[in-house]
Amino acid sequence: GLLRRIRIRNALPKALVHAEFELYFQPQIQPFSDRVLGFEALLRWHSPELGEVAPLDFIGVAEESRMILPIGTWVLQNACATLHELNRQYNADFFIAVNVSGIQLYSDTFVEEVLAILKENVLSPHLLELEITESVLLSHERGTIQKLNMLYAHGVRIALDDFGTGFSSLGMLKDLKITTLKIDKSFVQDKKNLALMEMMIRLGHIIGTQTVAEGVETEEQMHQARRLGSERVQGFLTARPMPLSALKSYISSRTE
Fold first, then answer.
1. Most distant CA pair in the chain: distance in Å?
2. In angstroms, what CA-CA distances link 3 with 9, 49, 68, 83, 99?
3. Rg (CA), the chain
4. pLDDT of 182-196, one tens digit each?
5. Is the pTM of this model over 0.90?
6. How far is CA 204 from CA 105, 148, 165, in A?
7. Which element (helix H / strand E) includes 203?
8. Are 230 and 223 in contact (CB under 8 A)?
9. For a FRET experiment, which of 40, 71, 82, 86 has its CA 20 to 30 Å from that of 93?
10. From start to end of 101-192, where are the E strands?
């Protein structure tokens, strides 16, 4: 409850300094070939005093205190550096997907920062996918959509996360240029929502985006993702989020 939030707020500023954060990676797979296409970078916090702190518990606190700005920069920087290393090691063209908070997006220097990090890590912009949730765009913060469109114009991929769970999805799609629709797991995992899932994938194809079926945990869900033509799947059936060392074993075992 409240006490834990206070402890999280007090411990957060030290977390970056003491290198308590780690990125985990969850592969995204091409459902027909089982080929690994790229990874979503997920933040983990190993706190000496609080134990493992879930993103759900600390991201909100980090946003309130604006600590999300330096943390977000750390995540982008690390994700891009790791991707550069992986692509060199495996002679591959993997991409990395990184979640972006509204607070980061509202910052005046966000676009320059992303482009600088790409340049620094010698990464082609199309290998970075920024994941934005609908709620971020609903706040109608001036300039948010322009900033994303600017990055899109530079070749960065823009993904709309948890698609279908917000309210103004369709209205937003006329202004926001996106490359990817991530279909929320509530549509993928519930058979009653199959028609909606099919409609979203079709919508993605109509507006020229790729779709990612999230939360694929069973062979049946994988079969539906294939049948409905989703370009990518992500979920426990193919891989859980894992630290870098495990990810390397995972890639090696699949590329031999």
1. 50
2. 10, 14, 20, 38, 27
3. 18
4. 999 999 999 899 999
5. yes
6. 24, 18, 15
7. helix 194-206
8. no
9. 71
10. 128-133, 157-163, 180-183
